[in-house]
Write a structure and sequence with these properties.
The longest helix is centred in the N-terminal third of the chain and has 4 residues. The chain is mainly beta and 357 residues long. A four-stranded antiparallel β-sheet has the order 1-30-29-28, with no helix packed on it. A four-stranded antiparallel β-sheet has the order 2-3-4-5, with no helix packed on it. It has a four-stranded antiparallel β-sheet with strand order 6-7-8-9, with no helix packed on it. 47% of the residues are buried. It is built from one helix and 30 strands. The two termini are 17 Å apart.
Length: 357
Amino acid sequence: MEKLSKPQIICHIEKSVNYSLFDAKWIPSSAKFVVMGSRPRGSGIIQIYEVSNGGLKLVKDIERSNPMKCGTFGASNLRERYLATGDFKGRLNMYNLEDPSIPIYSVNAHKEIINSIDGIGGQTVGCGAPELVTGSKDGSVKVWDPRQKGRPVAVMEPRAGDDRRDCWVVTFGNSYNSEERVVAAGYDNGDIKIFDLKTMGVRWESNLKNGVCGIEFDRKDIAMNKLVATTLESKFYLFDMKTQHPKKGFSYLIEKAHKSTVWLVRHLPQNREIFMTAGGGGSLCLWKYQYPEKRVTTDADGIEQGVVGSVLLLQNSTLSSQPVSSLDWSTDKQGLAVCTAFDQCLRVIITTKLNMY
């Protein structure tokens, strides 16, 4: 009986494609999603699918000259729903998917591949300008305002002569009014940095000893609350971001999640205490965070420090024999998600009973 009362991760639709899949995103307020990838001949592809009558209908097939690595709708409002993409040549493009033949915004953002992109400010009122952040193999993290052509509004990169580490993942957070905003970035050597865009300085940094593949705040449009970072060696770190101790930083827990690399983390939009991690062996794990009785304590010197809670594994499921490369929850229907894997399959999955948590 207990097994039946748990959430189940069900593969609702599975579709095989003839190209490498890197990212998938739901088109906000619709039953459609986009997938991005690379064709065998080296060109890029964006496809739009619609979920209808229990199956998938291909709505649009868009070929681009460069392979596509990542995308986001986060900097665009719900009326326009422009897709911003990062490609293998370091180019940042923004498309109106109604007419995607020519990007409405385009910039040579980086010298090498854009590994990760995130957007903010498009769908929230009073939380600052619409902005995009890109992280690249060239070691730099850049913030862009799509209303300003050509130049980034902020650049975070090593000083001349310093070691340039491959930036694998970026995300926005702490954007709870028009002034505050941070970017969290994870690097191939295990570095994790939080850049404060208000003060234009590093707010906090640490090293997790293994390459940081995935990073996400539980919600972007609130004061920093929790941050999950996933790593190469089958672990994720969950940081309580409410209280920063001057010496010890943020309190955290470490969880062994999958048998191999934990590629990504995605928090449920409807409940920020629930999140999914995806593993190198094609597995998904669904987690629930449980807060401690007290979130703050004081040390021997009377200085406040955070107290981290615990995580509970609600369910796990293996979808593929290959790594899951992306996952995106629907903001409209709780438990609905789209994911891609390196077996050249895209899958629509449904996670049941989430309203019980």
